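Worked example 4.2. Below are the chains of a multi-component assembly; read each line carefully before continuing.
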Amino acid sequence: MPPGIPLFPDGASTMAPRVDALYLFLVALSAFFSIIIFTAVIVFAVRFRRRSEGERPPAILGSLALELVWTLVPLGIVAVIFVWSTELFFSMHRVPPEAMEVYVVGKRWMWKAQHLTGQREINELHVPVGVPVRLLLTSEDVIHSFFVPAFRVKKDALPGRYSILWFEATRPGKYHLFCAEYCGTKHSAMIGTVTVMEPAAFQAWLSGGAAGQSLASAGEKLFQDLGCATCHRPDTLARGPNLEGLFGNPVRLADGGAITADESYIRESIVTPSAKVVAGFQPIMPTYQGLVAEEGLMQLVAYVRSLQRPAVAGGPPTGTSVQGAPAGPGASPGPAPPGQERP
Amino acid sequence: MSDVNTAIDAARLRRARLNYLNVSYGVKSWLLTIDHKRIALLYLASVSIMFAVGGAFAVAIRLELVTPPGDLVQSETYNKLFTMHGVVMVFFFLIPAIPAVLGNFLIPLMIGARDLAFPRINLLSWYLYILGSAFGVYSIVNGGVDTGWTFYVPYSTLYSNSNVVTTGIAAFIIRFSSILTGLNFIVTIHKMRAPGLTWFRLPLFVWAHYATSIIMVLGTPVIAVTLLSVIVERTLHLGLFDPALGGDPVLFQHLFWFYSHPAVYIMILPAMGVISELVTAMARKRIFGYGVVAMSSMGIAIVGFLVWGHHMFVSGQSTYAGMIFSALSFIVAIPSAIKVFNWTATLYKGSVSMQTPMLYAMGFIGLFTIGGLTGLFLAAMGLDVHVHDTYFVVAHFHYIMVGGTIMGYLGGLHFWWPKMTGRMYPEWWARVAAAVVFIGFNLTFFPQFVLGYLGMPRRYHAYVDEFQVLNVMSSAGASILGFGYLLPAIYLIWSMRYGPVAVANPWGAKGLEWQTPSPPPPENFPVQPVVVEEAYDYAPEKGVVVV
Amino acid sequence: MSDVTRGGTAGPVHVPVRGKAHGHDHPALVHHFADLDQQREASSLGMWLFIAQEIMFFGGLFLLYAVYRNLYPHAFAEASSHLDWKLGALNTVVLIGSSLTMALGVHAAALGHRKAIAWWLIATIVLGAVFLGVKVVEYGEKFEHHLVPGPHFHYEGPDARPAQIFFSLYFSMTGLHALHMIVGIPILACMAWMGWRGRFGPEYHTPVELTGLYWHFVDIIWIFLFPLLYLLGAHQPHM
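Applying the procedure described above to all three chains together yields the following structure tokens:
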């Protein structure tokens, strides 16, 4: 490898070797077929070059056998590639249930990350090595895309929606973070660093510095301040559905359908309440569009996620927040996320 | 005495033979012409100018990218440069070039007709192109547009402060130029073939344009209405994609790519038609697998409508939909591969001449093969996640558009130059230019594959230091490529006046267009031709061999 | 000049016989066509292709409608009830009537009845103008009630945001449709004029036929627009 010319990126996640394997297979395949075609064209052009004006080549119309061969063989090869790459893609969408959560908001022109413990970062993301990390992405304005080449992952961050990206880092170090969807003037400046740390170092980082309150407690405060608690309560004065134990469970809707309550559902219910009305309730909830910023919405989502059904009937809701990364492998945090994106 | 005078007069008349170029003079005779051949030359002039404009933007881009920081121009300017490079090259050059220049000129000749079905609509198409270009140039001069040629919302509707509306109008107008051209071609091919010219005796150039025209007619309106929606959202605040209202910006992507993917087949199919003609003529041999090649054009056109979602694998589109798009994207690659194999097989036991058209054809086959194979990388979802929106994609589509379409365009221009102008181009210079283009092209775009996998995103004004060496290589290649394009511009224009006079059939090729003088008379054929032989029937005496 | 009748392995030359009786010297025959039959077939195919692309053109908007209605069915139904379905129904009848007069105009052209052509086409124009007039009234109402999307949009209820999408679609789709009618009316006027001057007859009435195709297409688009936009809120109380 000539000095100074990088030819292949670092791989630092569990996905990277798998993506690289597919890539190298395709490179080999392409080189193979290219060489065959180039050679054939050049050899034929030289060997059968025109030697006299009057020469008349034979009229070879075609060959069904050859056509079938060079249709079916490529078809077979692409079928293999298809199955391989689709399986890889689906793995990229199957979020491990024990994944650590980070909420990320893209805005022109920076990435704002919030750990559940309350740690906030701008254009930086600190994660532990060897632990799956799940990012909940959204945008405050235009479409952005969260891209970490070393992890071989990328996902668009959309305004008005949540998208999910997950990875598991395998090597400590600092890796580039790029915005990969053109978003205006400083698109190429919307870059940062993902810092992968040993678990102990990560815990130290998490507890050091001004953490402030956890995401869920910030959400709880918003829940009170915005008056949500007026209607969403577990007692008979409730005019809205009780949110305890909502997350991850099915919800019956007024139009007869059902949906599993995930982050997107919670966000939509705050912003466009009339889109999915819960069975047995009136569509009277006002919209909070414009009244809560994306980060506030994420805090509310984190809060609602943390609401579990009380162990004793009639008791107050327990607002346990979901902790950040476990101290070491084996410890599991709070309620499990649904894991997959809505297809 | 009178006999001698008559003989001299007759000789003079023979020499001063009327052709479409000298039948009338004056600006009005050109601007109000309904002769498809003159309209083709009007297009040649206009698309060449737009190519130069788009090329100028490319030069500026590659100059900026020589160094990692954004130090040549400001970010806003750079964003406008790459947007306008894309808009001008895609809408004002690649989509019209081969159909409007070569297709317009050749299709009536190739099928033995006097003109296209609707000559006045043909002229209208050109005027729509000019009107659209005028809006485009106005947008550029008025400060440009910075949304990317893809106009993604909500950036283009709610955030961009640039000339989105005028550029949208330019693209909207020029879409109708495209639609009318396609409509004209379809009707012409259906209704105006010479007696005896059955569908499966048509030149493959005609098949390719037929398939292209179907896409033009059915696909283009969708981008027209989508751009209209963007214009309307910006001007009248009819928020169809506004997330604050509950609108879905990804819907825009679906609508945009529903046309823009088939659009890339509009750009490549005509070039493939040219290559079919070049290969068979330069090898003086029937095309291997004629029926298969013809049908593969149709197959690409049809399946090409079903794959648009492969631009959106990471957009939040459903994974199951993505799977279907991925599968279909792999399938659409197969007919293209089949063509490459058939062209190669045509050379086998041929009588291959290495004149310039053949050099371009060979260059096309090589570069299109690489471009097409790298398409497989992008159709593979798991891999596309990494390379989407990086320079890998940029390299892929430049291999197809520049290594493919532009090589096909130049090859076809050289091949039919004697027919169109009555003059031959200088062969030596043309071969040099072809070689320079090939080398410059590869040096420009191959490093970009590497850059893309390394992770350099597209549309980046400034980049991280480790990407510099490859960018410098790419920019160096671009200067060579630019020089390679300058050469034909110079010698082709030169040849129109000083090139050797061409005979009717300088290549000894088959095809009705070669059975009429160079340049052709205004009515194309003095006598209606009747077709009695198969396409590319180079060796009728020896009988047919089916392997 | 040599033509391409090379002796060869192909069979006898087949020259399709085009009806010699059909207007070889008809003044409407354009130079590059062999005869009027070919010209008519080509023009007809051209118009059908044009209509195909128009379908795709409107199709984009219909797709947007379908997606958003699926996402916000309640909001769309409620917003739809703000449209006056009676005016919409009137317009539907008017437009179907204009298609009837158009068809009768084409028939008259085929028979070469000068006066009938002109009157039927003028009737079509009048009905088209009535349609557009009703639309102007409707649009005016929307302005008054602040239902035009944009900074002055005002809508009561929790569904205001998706309702604005509904109205954006309403204006886009009916606006585009109205534009097509506005383009059609001068064409009809030209046809009426040419018909009055006796240019059409059994041999040649292609322009009227093609205009008829276009007008019927515009009518059909409205027949889809009316229920999709106006009749969604049928079960809602009119506000």
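Take a moment to check your reading of the output against the notes. Residues 1-23 of chain C have pLDDT under 50 and may be disordered. Chain C touches chain B through 52 residues (CB under 8 Å).
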